[in-house]
Design a protein that fits this description.
Blueprint: H1 2-17, H2 25-36, H3 44-58, E1 65-71, H4 74-91, E2 94-100, H5 102-115, E3 122-126, H6 130-136, H7 142-147, E4 179-190, H8 192-195, H9 198-208, E5 214-215, H10 218-228, E6 232-233, E7 236-237, H11 249-256, H12 259-263, E8 282-283, E9 289-291, H13 303-319, H14 329-332, E10 343-348, H15 352-355, E11 372-374, E12 389-397, H16 404-417, H17 420-430, H18 436-439, H19 442-447, H20 454-458, E13 466-467, H21 476-491, H22 497-518, H23 534-543, E14 562-563, H24 565-573
Parallel strand pairs: 1-2, 1-3, 12-13
Antiparallel strand pairs: 3-12, 4-10, 4-11, 4-12, 5-14, 6-7, 8-9
Helix pairs in contact: 1-2, 1-4, 2-3, 4-17, 11-21, 21-22
């Protein structure tokens, strides 16, 4: 199937690449015939109408060469190898779509912001930078752009309200700064077949006194991890948990990607806690960061955060394969597909396609998976109304340092690769959903049984609790790099969880203080609060109807709760 897909793609590139001098409707029809077919939420007539709009809007830019960039993901490979040549053939705008490592994207966008040198005309960079883009005011705000300077190149069929990540890329000023291009969530992954095995169910019930099922809280997750670790299934010993622990930049994502919020760090609020977010950074009523440490009303080193780190360490050591402690993110990723892991609390849905390949030990002979994904369990500090997990939203960003004509051409390409014409096909390739209409397309209803609950999750009301880093983080590139170094000290045993988080919040506050002193972010930049103890800030929070920083819970092992997966899915459909 994959070889056939590559062959048809190559044929398409040859067919389209042959004549971008003759850009127009013939090239568009050839693209729709070869690549899209009926995999679109638009009728063929509407697809052609949308393509005609692109052809007309692109005429002033015919022959221009532009460069755009994104991180290395299947979705972006598809854009780079298939959609970019198609766009070039249809519009006459020559697009080079570079695909590079995520860290390199962040480094290069920082360079362009600092020097004003135009490295790329369009960027797919994570919406985690929304607070950065809003405060530095170096990205074009798309709300004003679409109504003003970029109006003549804004597709009337774009339908911004169809984008499920729109709230993630909207700043406190109510303006849209980025347009989502791909999204994936971080969910709970488990062996559905093992959880439904009668002996496993009976043994678990006998030992723990409640039913084996999808854990709703960390207490249940811990019991299930303990139950499966060392158990023999199909002649081999299995493990109840999978994670990674090497002191490496990828360890940072493990925590900045909302691990603390799953424990119950921060305040209530969707898409992010206010006034304290899941990084533990507190803002005032004007969205100015005032601190990260408990001493300033933050929560980075509060009881919920320390508990989050402690549980991570306990489970990694007790229930994961011994080699996991020395693994990076990319090394640990394929391990559950090898068939000896019962569950993983922190699993990116970007791995879905790789985990569903026929022939794997975790895939049945008929191509259906032996595993499922479900909502993540939450820790003892978590309360209803909080976010429950992370969602990555790689989003189109136009920097002000890019000349207007080049930004316009890049904006046309950004809309092409996110258009309703191509989005269903692109989502079938990459499984990184951005449009509500695509999620509900009949092609995904048909494919759902082979994707282990991914479609059911994205169609469920639970989806809104999975969100990216929010607007409290004033400089994502500078602050994010502090996490892996400090938490790496806890994972290596050099520091206790409390010491590591004390050090992290102090490092974050150094950055916040420097930003405040420089005045570079104006009246929406940091303004540090005075220092008091935990009791003072907890009382202050409670008096205002907030939570963070919470006081330490005496018994952090609360009553375990599980739910039946099939019942859970049925409840969503109601």
């Amino acid at each position: 199937m994959r070889r056939q897909f590559l062959t048809s793609t190559t044929a398409l590139v040859l067919l389209l690449g042959a004549g971008h001098a003759y850009a127009g409707m013939d090239e568009a029809k050839a693209f729709l015939d070869k690549e899209i077919g009926d995999l679109s939420t638009l009728s063929r007539a509407d697809q052609e109408k949308q393509m005609q709009w692109f052809i007309d809007a692109a005429k002033p830019f015919a022959g221009m060469e532009i460069k755009v960039v994104s991180e290395t993901l299947t979705t972006h490979q598809y854009e780079s190898q298939t959609l970019a040549p198609a766009f070039t053939a249809i519009t006459g705008i020559k697009v080079t779509h570079d695909v590079i490592q995520e860290g390199d994207v962040v480094e290069k966008i920082q360079t362009q912001m600092q020097t004003g040198q135009n490295l790329y005309d369009g960027w797919v960079n994570d919406s985690d930078l929304i607070g950065t883009h809003w405060r530095y005011q170096q990205a074009r705000n798309l709300t004003d752009w679409m109504a003003g300077e970029g109006k003549d190149v804004t597709d009337p069929m774009l339908d911004v309200d169809d984008f499920i990540g729109k709230s993630f890329t909207t700043a406190p000023d109510g303006k849209l700064y980025q347009l989502p291009d791909q999204q994936f969530a971080n969910l709970y992954w488990f062996r559905y077949d093992w959880f439904n095995d009668e002996k496993n169910k009976a043994d678990f019930k006998a030992k723990y006194g409640y039913d084996l099922g999808v854990p709703v809280n960390w207490s249940a997750y811990e019991d299930i991890a303990q139950f499966f670790t060392g158990r023999e299934i199909d002649g081999k010993k299995v493990f109840g948990h999978m994670d990674y622990g090497k002191k490496d930049p990828s360890l940072g994502w493990r925590f900045t990607d909302a691990w603390l919020s799953m424990a119950g760090n921060g305040d209530k609020g969707i898409p992010n806690g206010k006034p304290v977010d899941e990084w533990g950074i507190k803002v005032d009523e004007n969205s100015r960061p005032v601190g990260s440490c408990v001493a300033r009303g933050g929560d980075t080193n509060g009881p919920a955060s320390v508990y989050a780190i402690q549980k991570y360490l306990d489970w990694l050591k007790a229930y994961a394969p011994p080699e996991a402690q020395g693994m990076t993110f990319s090394e640990s990723g394929p391990v559950p597909s090898q068939g000896n892991i019962a569950q993983q609390i922190f699993w990116y849905t970007a791995f879905t396609a790789d985990m569903a390949k026929p022939g794997l030990p975790v895939v049945n002979d008929d191509g259906t998976p032996k595993w499922r994904v479900a909502p993540s369990p939450h820790g003892v500090y978590w309360k209803d109304g909080m976010k429950l997990g992370y969602q990555d939203a790689g989003s189109w960003t136009l920097l002000k340092s890019t000349p207007t004509d080049r930004a316009k051409a890049a904006w046309l390409y950004a809309q092409f690769v996110t258009s309703k014409t191509v989005d269903v096909k692109k989502s079938q390739v990459g499984l990184t959903f951005i449009r509500d209409s695509t999620i509900h397309d009949k092609s995904f209803t048909e494919r759902a049984p082979k994707l282990g609950g991914l479609i059911e999750f994205y169609r469920s009301p639970a989806r809104v609790q999975w969100t990216p880093t929010g607007t409290n983080v004033p400089d994502y590139p500078k602050l994010a790099q502090l996490w892996w170094q400090n938490i790496g000290d806890a994972s290596s045993g050099a520091k206790s969880p409390q010491e590591a988080m004390d050090s992290l919040c102090a490092d974050q506050e150094k950055v916040l203080s420097r930003l405040e002193k420089s005045g570079v972010q104006g009246d929406i930049g940091p303004k540090m609060a005075e220092e008091h103890d935990l009791d003072y800030w907890n009382k202050d929070a409670v008096s205002k109807g907030n939570l963070a920083p919470q006081l330490k819970v005496e018994n952090e092992k609360d009553k375990p709760i599980t739910v039946n997966y099939d019942e859970l899915v049925k409840s969503w459909q109601k």
